[in-house]
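Two records follow; treat each independently.
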Amino acid sequence: MIAVIDNLLWLAVPGAALGGYLVRVFVDRLAERGALQTKERILREARHDAEQMRKEMELKAQQKIIQRREEFEKEVRETRKELRQTERRLDKREDSLDEKERLLNKKEKLLETNEKTVAEKRRELTERDEQLERLEEQKLQELHRISGLTHEEAKRRLAEQLRQEVEDECTEMINRRIARARRTAQQEACRVVIDSIERCAAETTSEATVCTVELPSDDLKGRIIGREGRNIRCFEKTTGVDVIVDDTPGVVVLSCFDSVRREGARLAMERLVADGRIHPGRIEEVIEQANSDVERTVKETGEEVCYELNFSNIPDPLKKLLGRLKFRTSFGQNVLAHSTQVCELAGLMAAELNLDVQLARRCGLLHDIGKAMDQRHEGSHAALGAEEARRRGESDVVVNAIAAHHEDVDPESPYAGLMIAADTISASRPGARRETLERYVKRLERLENLATQHSGVKTAYAIQAGREVRVLVNSDRVRDESAARMSHQIAKEIEEELEYPGEIVVTVIRESRYQDVAH
């Protein structure tokens, strides 16, 4: 049994091996068949994909070809368009060149014609020049024969004549420009004066138009103002003076351009402060009394001055104007004192000249009465004073002396000249009008030195307190035209080198005097 089993085992092992082999072969064949099928399937799919890709590539290539063809056709169209435009421009340029060529040909022909004409005219001019030279030579010979002058002498005379003509033309041109400048300078002068007034008016006005009233205590300021300001309003309305009550201790400021009215307000304020009763009724009463006192003072002052100066026949209105001058100042100088000085100076000079001393003194006393009126009327004080003197029955000599004492009008009598001199002496006296002696003398010396340094000047005088320079020139060395030019030069030098208020008149005097003695 065991042997059978062993035999069976020996038979089973090869059988199993053979079966395994057969199974393996079968499996390998099945796998090979499946691989072949898979391979064929994969090949089919690859062929299909390759065919699809080939078709897609062909389609894309066709699209690119079509796109490139469109772009190329577009470029071709644009190039053709540019070529057509270029061709048109070239055609136009060619036409323009043809036109220019025609014009150039035409101009060339015209130039040829003009050259011929110019050549003919040149020949004519040459012939005329030769003819003129012959005529000029004949003319010179004839002039030498007639005048008896040599060529050099004639040349010198001609040069002198031309020089004189040039000087005359220059002088005339300068005079024209000066006249034009004077015509246009008025507006500029007004502008400068207005600007100066804007800058300097405050300080000057405060000095000349205000006065102060001292108070015993600051408590009175409230009483001066009154309840709701009724006292100060009543005072200002009645007097016509502005009352300034500020923080300044112990004073009240009164401001007004009219010096007489300001004086009345000052007296009234002092009396109210001293009395202590300050209310509208009392204010009006005190102001009325103060104005009456001021008017009485004005009248008494005028009468006193006329009495002291021995004038008994001066009309009362003029005496009143003289009294008002007591409250008027000019550059720090009291006008009434100035008028009395002018009166005395005019009388002294009239006595030396054998003129009517009393008439000269009368002119001097009344010469500034217009300053008592110029704050209430329009016009210069000289014109206002002359008009008032004429209205009050003064003589023509007195009226002209008043009107001409600042040379606003021409003097008509020696008395007017005396007024000019006496007024200048009184106003220019060192110390009279805020100017020291040293500055005054130096200013006059510089004015005279500026004038005398010019060639042909004999001497120079600074007069009217330095407001005028009179220059005397040698009539043999300075002609009338040169004198006019010299006055302009001196005035310009004064403007550049000196500082002075107002204006300075430069007068150049050229005169010829011929004298002989009969034996």
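The next record belongs to a different protein.
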Amino acid sequence: MGDQKNLILAAVLSFLVIGLWEMFVIAPEREEIRRNAEIQAEIAQEQGIDGVPVPVGEGNLAAEVTALLGRDDALARTERVAIDAPRVDGSISLTGGRIDDLNLKDYRVTLEDDSPEVTLLSPRESGDAYYTLFGWAGGADMPGPRTEWTLTEGDTLDLGKPVTLSYDNGTGLSFTQRYEIDENFLFTVTQTVTNTGDEATVLSPYGVIARHGEPETEGFYLLHEGAIGGFDGVTHSIDYDDFEDFEMNAAERARVEKFEATDNGWLGITDKYWMTALIPETHKPFTGAFKLAGQANAPIFSADVRLPAVSVAPGGSETAVIHLFAGAKQADVLRGYEETLEAESFYDAIDWGWFFFLTKPFFWILNTIYKLVGNFGVAIIILTVIVKTVMFPLAYKSYVSMGRMKKLQPQTEKLREKHKDDPQSMQKAMIELYRKEKVNPASGCLPILLQIPVFFALYKVLFVTIEMRHAPFFGWIEDLAAPDPTSIFTLFGLLDWNPPVFLMIGIWPIIMGITMWLQMQLNPAPPDPIQKKIFAWMPVLFTFLLGSFPAGLVIYWTANNVLTIIQQSTIMKSQGAKIELWDNIKRLFTRQKSES
């Protein structure tokens, strides 16, 4: 019995830790991010306003920013080439040839119908500058951040409609940058340099992703946001805070961490749902680097790709190709690019976590079911059925044991009464009874313990995958990755006030609590009075704890409880145990009626 208590205590404590963390750490931060998103959506619908100048560092990218502007004003400062592709829109600045204006057509900031598209890239003069830059290094008069390019092909970048920019440095070198885009989020930038002079020139093609300022992260220690890269199949993840630990490079005026790739690789900057990444041509070596420039109050984070130097002979030309991923971390899309571009570990840009061996197959099953039924909430319920089916052999043994224990309860009560003054004798007698009847009291904990890794894995899937973002179920559940928006303390929306996070007890958490109470009525009553009180209050406690969890997780737990009730009652009844569930419900309502 001691082992059983320890197992139950371990399971309960595990859920308590998760629940309290969700309630008092993640839920408040999620609410803050939600409010910020609403504010940003309002700002995005208004005209930008000039901001105040901010101090910046000197040299390289840091010297390019002198003041913060509203987005519209920042975009209006330079001539631009429009981007209007199937899944993104925006523009390319002819100054520097930057891709610095990019919105994601399929994703909105909030659930509101008039919510603006998610903005991924922004010009360098704006408060949230985030852009890409391509060029050649090694010679004099190379095109740089302030170079004015000329549009020589196309007028709008779209699928099957490339655009080309040209620049002549006037000293014997001419450059072109050809931009193409596919049906998703992949840009292909082809750079060509032609030597019209009399001497050979050695140059190195490069690509840069730069982000000014540290963004507000959503990871809550549960997923990685910051620099990320895969070099010959080895993935590296670096948080924004870790940039400070890089070695200072005086020549580049930045803190730098370099990686060498001999065959394939990629690197970039990732958010929870979005990412930018540079992917050089496969089977070509390159040097990747993460850098921190600027000043402490105006940091500039960058991910750089430097390809091997090439010698451009007089009258000759050289070409370099670098792919740019800029979009949503959609699992199927990332997997497709990993295969077609041979970019090893690109799929792992999604932070599957330590339990990737569970989260990856769980997501694959959910996504496969979703493609058949068209609703992730329904897919979660079907996944619950699959999990219960797979675990049925173990659950069967557990429920058989619990049924036998419930059948033995009159005998165990007599033994407790007989040996109430001698705990050791009582323990010995109970063990002998269980051995005689072939009952394992600890096996009743097995269903609880088996649910813990499943719970963790599904929680991770709901938290990190963009497929769950804004995914509706039915009725009032419009986002399975967010908590149930209703609350009993607002009479489910009738009262106009915002209760604290721990009082946001919606309809689904209440249903989950009721099904949990019903399921627990099937279990043998705990012998210890304190343990019995703990179990009696557990449904109430878990109702409050799971109130701030993603609705998809609460739906999973509710479906699991319902299936457990059906399985457990059927199996226990087959063992001759009396099912007192409905008697307890009747007794509860009878007691309430008599008290009133």
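Discussion point: Residues 47-351 form a domain with the Beta-galactosidase; Chain A, domain 5 fold (CATH 2.70.98.90). How would you locate this feature using only the token line?
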